[in-house]
């Protein structure tokens, strides 16, 4: 199975800078995550499309994500997008609206806490997304916190720090 992962930054990929105390997107942590998983029959490739907190994403950034997904469609059995949770629903709605007649699943996932934090949800969400890519039907989804939610109508539940359907 061929999976393309598009990285865009967000909390899942933030790292702590000890020098200035900041938490920022410096580089993708995806190779580190994948190195710790046993994926014997997956052919995983990845591309860094945008690399910023999703609150800083512009419409231009979302169009770049859309174009990257369109380019990956013919060569992928599934696409996973690592994305910041604050505006993940906006990107998901755009992909759902623009990518009609999908033949594969497109999954958005992220984390409420960075991968490098002890209490992160990043590894769980990436692992769940990799499994969901094998078994869900074509469409655009958020996969996080033991949930598979299909667009349209997926929203961030800020009170419970997860996602839900409207």
Indicate the topology.
Blueprint: E1 2-9, E2 14-17, E3 22-25, H1 30-35, E4 43-52, H2 59-72, E5 78-82, H3 88-98, E6 105-109, H4 122-135, E7 139-144, E8 147-150, E9 154-157, E10 162-165
Parallel strand pairs: 1-4, 1-5, 5-6, 6-7
Antiparallel strand pairs: 2-3, 7-8, 9-10
Helix pairs in contact: 2-3
Q: Can you tell me about this structure?
A:
With 166 residues, the protein is an alpha/beta fold. It has a single domain (2-165), classed as Rossmann fold. The chain has helices spanning 30-35, 59-72, 88-98, 122-135; strands at 2-9, 14-17, 22-25, 43-52, 78-82, 105-109, 139-144, 147-150, 154-157, 162-165. The strands form 3 sheets. A 6-stranded mixed sheet has the order 4-1-5-6-7-8, sandwiched between helices. The chain has a two-stranded antiparallel sheet with strand order 2-3. Helix 4 links the parallel strand 6 and strand 7 (139-144). 40% of the residues are buried. The mean pLDDT is 93.
Average of pLDDT: 93
Give the CATH H-level superfamily: L-asparaginase, N-terminal domain
Largest sheet: 6 strands, mixed
Number of helices: 4
Question: Termini, distance in Å?
Answer: 32 Å
- As residue ranges, the low-confidence spans are none
User: How many strands appear in the DSSP assignment?
Assistant: 10
Order of helices and strands: EEEHEHEHEHEEEE
Helix/strand class: alpha/beta
Radius of gyration: 15 Å
